[in-house]
Amino acid sequence: MDALGQQGRSVDDVIADLTEKRANDVRWSDGKTFGMVYDGGPSVHAVAEEAARLYLHENALNTQAFPSLAAIQREVVGWTASLLHGDDDVAGFLTSGGTESILCAVLAARERASAERGITEPEIVLAETAHAAFHKAAHNFGLTVRKAPVRPDFTADVDAMAQMVNENTAIVVGSAPQYPQGVQDDIVAIAALAASVGANCHVDACMGGFVLPFAERLGRDVTPWDFRVDGVTTISADIHKLGYAPKGVSVILHRTKQSRSYQTFVFDDWLGGFYASPNMQGTRSGLPMACAWAVMQHLGIDGYVELTRQTLINADRMRAGIMAIDGLRVLGDGQFHLVAMAAEEGSGIDAFALGDALLKRGWYHDRQAPPDNLHSTVSNTNTGVIDDYLVDLEECVAEITGTTTDDRSTTYATLE
Question: pLDDT tens digit string along 88-119?
Fold first, then answer.
């Protein structure tokens, strides 16, 4: 382990080293990375970078000291609630990302189940496609997980979920859309199931919260999923994904302020004074909050509709191109921006070997299983490169057919 140098270094030297460290990072700005960073274009970069400069040092731990951050949070939450058809009772907070929003939703559900229903052994019911963050939340907060299978189209099997709900169910989860194959669960049925036992219903729209409202405006067939659905209690939506704000900022929305109160920790028996924390963090950087505010104001509804229009064009073109190549298939009937590509059985194509070959040409995908497949979150970032990608894809298929790779890992993690 290296020790910190005794003497400091010049600004130029420090920045030069940081620049060199980035040499092996994915080239998201080239459009060859399908996920993780989402590019809204030069003007979005400009407004976000200026907002970041203004709020580089501000701390949302205490919004009495920084009332501008209180206003920013209130306004961004309000704009998002409006997009998702929430009324004036809908309330929420900004978080650092989708995982934190999900943690807050599960915590609130557990606390409500305890306070209102006397549940001491809470359970969470979800499909096997629900994000891993729900399992993290269950682990952290002491909920038992009841995991249901999915249907052949990869949507949640609500009938199977119905066999798992009981008097201890604190929360039932649906995704709009889910991450692995990009298909949307039947939120109406899931919300009704949750309501039947008095449980919370959380809709994970971390991926879709800033796509589905605009896809609907573009005439896409979007089945009901937001606060228009009776029984939906909470929704998570990530602004730092297809909301095109820099990392990390997400929104957790509650149908009522009473529901929101269950995620807030309040402590008044400390020599430091009254303490209240609305989410998992104490100190919170004002930078991502301000960037989200700035990007949303800059784009407006029309800007988001145009970015979504281009994203859907990119994803549709990618799906069609994949299915036109012998031996490849797309998992599920995704209609939006997520694409999972797998090999046809007996084709001789190893999906992970294909991913390795594509990576050598600069194309980055996440690996998933089962079945072995390559995952893409398509966005405006990929505008202008899809045809090049499909040419490389066809050539890589020809190159690797009949070969395999020993590396079967599907890491989606930070591990050392």
Answer: 999 999 999 999 999 999 999 999 999 999 99
